[in-house]
Design brief:
There is one protein chain. With 102 residues, the protein is mainly alpha-helical. The chain has one domain (3-83). The chain contains four helices and two strands. The chain has a two-stranded antiparallel sheet with strand order 1-2. A hairpin with a 2-residue loop joins strand 1 (58-59) and strand 2 (62-63). The longest helix has 25 residues, at 28-52. The model has no long low-confidence stretch (mean pLDDT 85).
Length: 102
């Protein structure tokens, strides 16, 4: 793998993470989260495509298509997890048991 391929494999998920952040919004923390998840998802997708012999949008030695899909899956899953709120029923049960005690 050449240095150009590695740089393309680094800058592509960074760009994808930045675009996802522009679309979904959020703080600087979320920008870092999206870029980190995009990098992890991209390289895991690339490795999976290499191991299974998939050739979807292959650019040189880089599996760009599957890597991009991996980035998107990881960013969507990370966005969903970061927006997950605790259930209201659990809060009500705690407050009801505390209020009954003296």
């Amino acid at each position: 793998m050449t240095i150009q391929t590695i740089l393309l494999g680094i800058f592509t998920p960074i760009f994808l993470g930045a675009v996802f952040h522009l679309w979904r919004g959020g703080s600087a923390w979320r920008l870092g989260l999206y870029i980190g998840l995009a990098l992890i998802g991209f390289w895991l997708g690339h490795i999976a495509a290499q191991n299974f012999g998939w050739n979807f949008l292959k650019v040189g030695g880089l599996q760009l298509g599957v890597g991009t899909l991996g980035s998107l899956v990881f960013m969507i899953f990370g966005h969903w997890l970061s927006n997950k709120q605790p259930e209201q029923d659990a809060k009500r049960k705690k407050s009801a048991t505390r209020g009954g005690r003296i």
